[in-house]
Specification:
homodimer; 239 residues; alpha/beta; Ribosomal Protein L25, Chain P; Alpha/beta knot; 2 domains; 6-stranded mixed beta sheet; rRNA (uridine-N3-)-methyltransferase activity (chains A, B); Ribosomal RNA small subunit methyltransferase E (chains A, B); rRNA processing (chains A, B)
Chain lengths: 239, 239
Amino acid sequence: MNQALLFPEDFVAHDRVVLRGRRLTHIQSVLRLSAGDRLPVGRVNGLMGHGTVIRLTDTEAELVITLAQPPPAAPPLTLILAMPRPKMFRRILQTSATLGIKDIWLINAYKVEKSFWQTPWLSDESLRDNLTLGLEQAKDTAMPDVHIRKLFKPFVEDELPALLRDKVALVAHPGTATPCPTHLNQPAALCVGPEGGFTPYEVGKLEEAGCQSVHLGPRILRVETAVPVLVSRLFDACL
Amino acid sequence: MNQALLFPEDFVAHDRVVLRGRRLTHIQSVLRLSAGDRLPVGRVNGLMGHGTVIRLTDTEAELVITLAQPPPAAPPLTLILAMPRPKMFRRILQTSATLGIKDIWLINAYKVEKSFWQTPWLSDESLRDNLTLGLEQAKDTAMPDVHIRKLFKPFVEDELPALLRDKVALVAHPGTATPCPTHLNQPAALCVGPEGGFTPYEVGKLEEAGCQSVHLGPRILRVETAVPVLVSRLFDACL
């Protein structure tokens, strides 16, 4: 937690918050703060600054906050991700938030196991919690949007073309001929398949919707590695 | 396992191997192969090709192999990493191997907790197992070298200067003035600190040894995210 992210329900006055639970534990056990100490804070979807601890008990920390700085720029990227295996999903979500990705679509694919969609990590609360951890790591405040689409074909045929408008649209597809561009630094949409990749049918449908297939070289990367590699490659100006 | 990595002890003839344990389970339960089916294989520190299953029992799989293709090029990078927390270490090791990093130095730093060095993941066998998983993911065969240095000062003063010779030497240090270069594509050494970063004293010692401090932008990345971002940024020609 490089910055505590503050939500509307944390505020007890316009410049005062009360923190409990995870953030309190972090303040006590990791940062080991006392009354009078400061820590970086940011208001969700708002400005960043610092908070000064004015009261610390076993159950809550009260902070006076000063917010003045905007959050860092975000790469103009729409990430369209085949729903990952649950044990990877949380980490990918956190990493995506840390990298500044603000628009995440979780879609189905042939190699997405049906059980993946049952994970409790997809609840609104879990999504928010994990995105929060990613934002706190990065020192960002802009909460990403996560869209869940459990049917591949209606998504690709009915929604994807509009989503790709005015963007460079790519699908990461190992073994294809075209390398992924570098330092693109313009609005882009990037589709990343499941473990084992999109099927040829799925790649065909994504191409019909306007995506170009690109590869990342001879190495096959796990999704959790491919996402930072791709963001770094496309948006070196934003990182 | 996009490719089964073969070790000398797997060979029963120059073109035949017998696989047991994890690789057998993968062949049976994930790939669901039968006699006559093929899978990609590679010989550790050697060529890659395919194996044809000629015998499959509950306890072993026998394959006839043909190897002709060299492994992919590797980024010319020496990674010098403050020993990560054990639960992250395994993953960072696998990811580093997948990215093609061949020279890994695990060093001490003030914010490396003493207990991190006690992890069983540092045994020779565990290191080999996790690097193997990373290589199998990438379809690579060249086993990385891992060097363990539990004392910061002797390493930085006595070994590091020679290690940095003829390399671009960088230390990732959030908050410094110089951005990390992009598409360097020449031999480099990269130092990455622990959670919370190197101390100013440590950064000073690394700079004395020849490293330049660089930042990755305003976002603070976890080590497991920073490594793929940095490799992608420095070596776009190798990925």
